[in-house]
Amino acid sequence: MSKRRQHTHAAPPAAPSTPPKAEAFTFGDAMPVMDRAEILDYVETWAAGQWFEPPVSLAGLAKSFRAGVHHSSAIYFKRNVLSATFIPHKLLTREEFDKWSLDFLVFGNGYIERQRSRLGGTLALKRAPSKYLRRSTDLQKFYQVNGWQQQHEFEVGSIHHLMEPDINQEVYGLPEYLGALHAAWLNESATLFRRRYYENGSHAGFILYMTDAAQSQTDVDNMREALKNSKGPGNFRNLFMYAPNGKKDGIQLIPVSEVTAKDEFFNIKNVTRDDLLAAHRVPPQLMGIVPSNTGGFGAADTAAQVFGANEIEPLQRRFAQLNEWLGDEVVRFNPYSIKTSNSIA
After folding, report:
1. Domain for residue 156, yes or no?
2. What family does this chain come from, according to its entry (predicted)?
3. What is the pTM of this model?
4. What H or E segment, with its residue span, contains residue 135?
5. Which residues, other chains included, contact 227 with Cβ-Cβ below 8 Å and sequence gap of 6+?
6. What's the farthest any 2 CA atoms get from each other in the chain?
7. In a domain, 284, yes or no
8. pLDDT of 99 higher than 80
């Protein structure tokens, strides 16, 4: 009998398994390079029909006024000191002076309108809002502009323009703090980022790293479900995990940059605060800032005296320029002084 050949069919080779790969990804929207810094890109005024446009965006300055707490607080502090030392006049009330001085400190331009009586005399002095006033191309008239539709032309010679001089043009004034606007915006961005950081729950973010081979897929799914249920209202709950025959480092909890973000937040807030106070030249002890060092900031009364001599008195002389335009002493101030225990006694 012939032997039958037995043919064996070899099984096809198994496809090589793809080893697991580590994966990294980024999230979050891209941030534009040009944010609000474009309001400083103008270098000169340009004519827009009947009037000149300001060298910087006045709407941008108005929005930036409340960007940082130390920015607006320093301006309000100067305004309050000027208001406290101002002597009201029958033509210029304290309320109108407060508006005028705040406009000048924020925009670098302060406008006073002289309202005349029927006989030609001065009836009252009213503040004209600096944000909406424009100077004509012939530099003789002023317009109050509200958008592109409405405009009001003031009578020639009825507007007094108090301006902070600029080195690039002579039409409008610019505030002294322009160099510190980036610090104010960074301060605001850090606060908003920190607020979103807490609202979206990222402050409790972590990586749950499991390398224990004793855990099955069912155990992993159960832990994933337990973590999902711990989010939302009533979060920060404790979780119990029982892993028989598990290793010591089989489950690790790794926080995600929580400590670093906290440290950077305080550094940014402190650095931007110092920049803003340096730009406004207001002593920190007069702003109600709590010192972080043991030595403190020094005596507040001494700092107030220096501040009054170096900042308040020059501002008072600046506002007194209105008297030369009117031909009458309307703007007057009391000396800025601090009542100490020795002076009271």
Report:
1. yes
2. Belongs to the phage portal family. PBSX subfamily.
3. 0.71
4. strand 133-135
5. 208, 239
6. 145
7. no
8. yes
